[in-house]
């Protein structure tokens, strides 16, 4: 890759990352492309140049979030006992979210308080989880009589649930005046 291509990639990544942070904080509808450009330290025209429109930028942000999820799950080998593979994948997702707080904040916003157009990210995540679940089944892991789509939703909710709900529990705990630290949210579906 030439230095011009490298600079262009750096600029588009900087714009996308600035958009992710602003979308997580304010939501897509409340964030202007001008604000994204200012946050990224670029001229406003560059946002349109790289992403075409706000929708194009939002889609790039969504694809980046799904890519983080995909890479985290893909980092875990599918060899070994089922419980170790499942625990390893859950740990990889947790580590990814710890390293990418804007991604989890954006997910929390679109899942818990969705706005118009926010369903696309959830659909992309679900589609990725369906592929991941089928891959596990193809490797003899996670075989179930449950349809793959239902199993994928269960896994996705288990992996995201703590990240989506823990801040709410923390706020309630603080409002209650409790002196001990809040308990950890663990999601179990029955």
Automatic annotation (TrEMBL):
Residue ranges: DNA binding: 32-51
Organism: Janibacter indicus
Lineage of source species: Bacteria, Bacillati, Actinomycetota, Actinomycetes, Micrococcales
Entry keyword set: DNA-binding
Family annotation (PANTHER family): HTH-TYPE TRANSCRIPTIONAL DUAL REGULATOR CECR, HTH-TYPE TRANSCRIPTIONAL REGULATOR RUTR
PROSITE patterns: HTH_TETR_2
Domain spans labelled HTH tetR-type: 9-69
SUPFAM superfamilies in UniProt: Homeodomain-like (SSF46689)
Superkingdom of origin organism: Bacteria
Alphabetized GO MF terms: DNA-binding transcription factor activity; transcription cis-regulatory region binding
Protein name: HTH tetR-type domain-containing protein
């Amino acid at each position: 890759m030439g230095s011009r291509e490298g600079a262009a990639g750096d600029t588009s990544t900087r714009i996308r990352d600035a958009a992710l942070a602003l979308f997580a904080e304010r939501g897509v509808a409340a964030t202007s492309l001008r604000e994204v450009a200012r946050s990224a330290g670029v001229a406003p025209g560059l946002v349109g140049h790289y992403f075409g429109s706000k929708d194009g930028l939002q889609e790039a942000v969504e694809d980046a979030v799904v890519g983080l999820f995909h890479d985290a799950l893909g980092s875990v080998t599918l060899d070994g006992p089922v419980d170790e593979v499942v625990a390893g994948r859950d740990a990889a997702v947790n580590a990814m979210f710890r390293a990418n707080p804007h991604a989890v904040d954006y997910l929390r916003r679109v899942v818990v308080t969705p706005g118009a157009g926010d369903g696309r990210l959830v659909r992309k995540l679900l589609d990725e989880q369906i592929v991941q679940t089928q891959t596990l089944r193809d490797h003899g892991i996670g075989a179930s009589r449950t349809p793959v789509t239902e199993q994928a939703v269960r896994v996705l909710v288990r992996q995201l649930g703590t990240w989506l709900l823990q801040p709410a529990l923390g706020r309630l705990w603080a409002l209650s005046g409790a002196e001990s630290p809040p308990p950890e949210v663990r999601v179990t579906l029955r």
